[in-house]
Every structure is written in structure tokens, then in C-alpha cells.
Specification:
Layout lengths: L1 E8 L8 E3 L2 E4 L3 E2 L13 E5 H9 L13 E4 L11 E4 L3 E8 L8 H6 L4 H4 L1 E7 L1 E3 L4 E4 L9
Parallel strand pairs: 5-6
Antiparallel strand pairs: 1-2, 1-6, 1-11, 3-4, 3-10, 5-9, 7-8, 7-11, 8-9
Length: about 150
């Protein structure tokens, strides 16, 4: 079963995020209280798999949820295999829509500066909040079959 491992926020951009007990995802906005929330565009929430963080640990580095500036750390779901437009349900209420796979890593990335590389560009994903609600560690994650933008 795929689950939420951590929900993480930061008051400033360009810094690691700190795990919180729960977060409120607001439709069309993002994670309330996070520096990236409310930014126009399609990158309202970021997700990274614990399995991806584990790859860095296998290379001798120690990282925790939020260290790659992801809002939601997941386990048991192959995030990078998803396609843009795929729905991810979090718990019983929240619906996210994958909007971007990976990203361009900026030169000032804290992780890149510290260890010379960052996994977020290849293995992190971004999503829009379609239906908001409370998200907590332990919430189940389920992947929908398609996009609201599919041809019908």
C-alpha cells in the first residue's frame, strides 16, 4: 500500500522543509503555510518518494523527509512512472493532479551545494491541488486512471 510518510513545510524558498503533524492542502493554492503556496502556475505541491531518498543514502549520504524541499514524502508509489495529468488521491478527500515530472535544479540548491547532486530534478514530481483537505503521515495514496484533461 502506498502512503504519505511526511508532510513538510518551510517559511522560506530555497531551504529544507520541516515535517509537520498535518498540513492543509488548498485547491488551486498548495500547502497552507509553505513558501511555495499561492505561487501562480502548476507547481503547487511537490512530492518525492522515500525510495528516491534511499538512493542517496545508498551513496553514503543521510537525508530525511523534507531535506529535498518536497512537501509530501511518499512510500510505495513509483512517482516518476506517472504521467502528467494522472490523479493521486490522498486519504479520502484530497485529489492532486500531476503537473510536472522533475525540474531544473537551480545552482543555489542547498542539497546540490552540499553533496554535488540532487535527486529532485529526476525523481521529484509536482502537482496541482484539485480538491483540498487535510493530509497527514500515514494517509493512503491511490493513483487514478487518467486526467481531467483526457479526450472523451
Amino acid at each position: 500500500m502506498a502512503t504519505v510518510v511526511a508532510v513538510c513545510t518551510s517559511p522560506k524558498k530555497g531551504t529544507k522543509k520541516t515535517p509537520v503533524r498535518e498540513g492543509i492542502l488548498k485547491s488551486g493554492y498548495g500547502l497552507v503555510g509553505d513558501a511555495h503556496a499561492g505561487v501562480q502556475g502548476h507547481r503547487q505541491v511537490s512530492l518525492l518518494a522515500l525510495e528516491s531518498i534511499g538512493k542517496m543514502a545508498a551513496a553514503g549520504f543521510i537525508f530525511s523527509p523534507g531535506d529535498f524541499a518536497e512537501n509530501i514524502t511518499t512510500e510505495g508509489i513509483d512517482l516518476v512512472s506517472l504521467s502528467v495529468g494522472t490523479e493521486i488521491r490522498v486519504g479520502d478527500v484530497v485529489v492532486l493532479e500531476v503537473s510536472q515530472i522533475g525540474k531544473e535544479c537551480h545552482a543555489g540548491c542547498a542539497i546540490r551545494c552540499q553533496v554535488g547532486k540532487c535527486i529532485m530534478p529526476e525523481e521529484g514530481i509536482f502537482a496541482r491541488v484539485v480538491r483540498g483537505g487535510v493530509v497527514r503521515p500515514g494517509d493512503a495514496l491511490t493513483v487514478g486512471k487518467g486526467s481531467r484533461h483526457e479526450c472523451r
